Hints:
Helix 4 packs antiparallel against helix 5 (118-132) and helix 5 (118-132) runs antiparallel to helix 6 (155-194). Strand 13 and strand 14 form a beta hairpin. The termini are far apart. A seven-stranded mixed sheet has the order 6-7-5-8-9-11-10, with helices on both faces. It is elongated, with a radius of gyration of 28 Å. It is built from 13 helices and 15 strands. The longest helix has 40 residues, at 155-194. By secondary structure, the protein is an alpha/beta fold.
Amino acid sequence: MLERPKGGEICVLVHVNFGDIDFQENNQEFIELVNSTDAEIKDYATGTRSSPDPKYYVGSGKLEEIKQSVDANKANLIIFNHELSPAQERNIEKACCCRVVDRIGLILDIFAKRAQTFEGKLQVELAQLEHMSTRLIRGWTHLERQKGGIGLIGPGETQLETDRRLLAGRISHIKQRLDKVRKKRNLSRVSRKKAEVYTVSLIGYTNAGKSTLFNSLLNAKQAYTANKLFATLDPKIRRLNVPGIGNVILVDTVGFINNLPHKLVSAFRATLEETVLSDLLLHVIDLSDPNYINKIHHVKTVLKEIKALNIATIEVYNKIDKLRNIEKPYTELDKSGDIQKVWVSSVLRKGMNLVKDAIANRLSYGVVHLILKLPFEYAKERSELYYENAVVNCECIDNNYWELEIKISIHKLNKIFIDDIWQKFVTSK
C-alpha cells in the first residue's frame, strides 16, 4: 500500500464487546456519534472477545466479515468504537482496502465541524495534530526502504523526520497561542472576582439540554441548539440577573461523554477551566434518557479528573415534558434546607424561576435583607442597586427619601456605598 485509502461517508461500524456491562448503552451512543457526522451507516459489526487482537484488534474471522461487508455495501469508511493503535489502523486498512477511523478520530471529526471560535479551532487542531503525530509513517510506506550504499539514509526516513519536525513546531506554536488565550481568560476571571461577580457553569452529558436551558434562563437565543451530540463546543458566556444576588456570569460548556480520551481533555484544558473555577455548577440531566443514572456517574468521573468534584452543584433534571408522571416543575431540598435538585422543562421554559431561586439559594451566603431610608442625593447608589437587581420594593416617603427593601450580597453593598455609609440608613432587618 503506497498511501492511505481515501475516506468517505458510506461506513461500516464496528463495536466489540469485552465484557462491558454498558455494552448496549455504548452501542446507542456510538450510533448517535456517527449520526452527528452525517455519515451513512450501511452495516454494524459486533462480536465478543476476552481481549483485543494485537494485530487487527478483532479476530481474523471478524476481520473477514468486515471486509465482506465493506465490499458488499461499497463502503469507503470503517469506524471503530474503540481506540486503535497506529499499527492496528494500518493493518486493517491494508486488509480491507478501506479507510479506518477510531473513536478518537470520530470525536475529533465532530469537534472540527462544531468549532466556531478562534480558541475552539486551535484546540481542535491541537488535538488533531497530537493524534496524527503517531500515524505519520502510514503516508510514507512507499519510502520505507533505505537506499543502498554506505552512510546513505533512505528518502522515506528523511521525509518522515521532516514531517515530525514540522508537526512538533506547529503543536508548540498552537500551545503558545492557547496559553495567551488562557492568560486573557485569567485576567477576565480576576476582574470578575474583584467585582464580586459569581460564575455559574452549566455542565452535563452531551445532548442533555444545556444550551436550551442557557437560552431559556436568558430568555433569548444566545447559544446554538440541536438534537445532536456535541452541538456546543465553544463555551458561551453571558450575564444573568438573579433575584437577591444580582448579576452573575452564566457559562454554557462543552458536553461530557463516556470514555472521553485523555488527550482531548488535555487539549481542551482552557475550556474546562471555566468549569474548574466556577462558584456554582448546574449539572443538567436528561431525565427522559433511560440511562441517565449511568451518565450522571460518567459526568462525575470527568469532574473528578479535572478536579472540580468539590464545587457546589445543583442537579437540574431536564426534559420533564417528555414524561407523563411529572406534571409541573418542582424542587428538592437537602438535609440543611438548601435547594439540591430542580425538575424543569427548558424547551418549554417551565421552571426557570425555580432554577434562579436555586442559584440564589446556593450563592446567598453573605446576602443581607434590609430596609433603607435613602435620601434623594443618593440617586446614583439607588440606580446601582436596581442595576444589581437587588431592589425588592421601593416607595417615596413624603418627597423626602426613598424607603428601599433590598436583598444583596454584603460585599456588593459595600462596593456601592463609600465607607459603608449605608449602615446609617438601615431602619429594619
